[in-house]
Amino acid sequence: MNKRIHVFQIAFTYIGTIVGAGFATGREILQFFTQYGYLAVFTILLSTLLFILLGAKMMTLSRQIGAASYEDLNKHLFGERLGSIISLIMLVILIGVNSIMLAGAGSVFMENLNFHYQTGLLLTIIGTYLILRKGMTSILYMNSLVVPMMLALSLLIVSKSIHLPGADRFWTMSSDHSLPSVWLAPLLYTAFNLVMAMPVLVPLGSRTGSERTVRWGGILGGAGIGFMLMCAHFAMSAKMPGISQFEIPMGSIASQLGWLVQIIYILLIFLEIFSTFVANMYGITLQLQQRTSMNPRLITLGIMTACYVFSQFGFSSLLSILYPLFGALCLIWVTRLSVFGLSLARKI
């Protein structure tokens, strides 16, 4: 029973790390999937398969080598020197990601709760600092509470969207985009998000006693991510193209389902952003601890200060510029993970 519970904890942490600002708000899904029309159904299935295979492989491999942080895994995949360089590049990427998480929190508070943009930023930073004092345990518990609620709400939104006039658009909506751009989008999306999940999945995998537990946690987590992708795509397709004008499109959909659903969804959006921000900060701090002798709390404060500065540029602008660029850089890493230890991949 304990192993089964741990499987779900790993799966929920995997989902909670991926379901950050762009995912929970809908901007990310709109940009990489929904705008491509009915073909998004197939590209989401491709992403789901990659999340299952590569997420499970990443955690299993981390466990086998006893990786303390994602830098250890990079050195194992690419060698000592190149792995160290790639880890530095990923550090820059992750700071950019956390800036987007923080900007997303600010947008939630400003657009849906009528608070100041800076209020969301500061509350997220303060809460993260307090939670990180308890380490990995707090991350597991936090995601075990938030992710099941997010899955249930995804089902609720789909059940309400079925009755809308445009409910069949997820299967009939056309697109003017070229086929190469359509099929490159899920690869970029998956590559970026797997790298984003590394800071917490690598130490999580290495600290789990059973390889079977790690593998099934990755499988269930990847499947859960695919399920939530499809739910959000279905709901947003019914509202296209008007839904694309909103900073938080899924919040707009929730607002049409009644005030109670809207409040719950907005709260969950913030909690998902918050959980991803916490997980990334945890992993970045671990990685920098290996390179410096600084106090981990000072490292955390320094990184959060940098993220606060970058988050002033806004949410949508950061998302549209940085995500495709980061995804392209991350493709190199995912390609290496895919071909490394093919016998391990066959086990998964």
TrEMBL record:
TM ranges: 7-24, 36-56, 85-109, 115-132, 139-162, 182-204, 216-236, 256-278, 298-315, 321-345
Keywords: Membrane, Transmembrane, Transmembrane helix
Name assigned to this protein: Transporter
Species classification: Bacteria, Bacillati, Bacillota, Bacilli, Bacillales
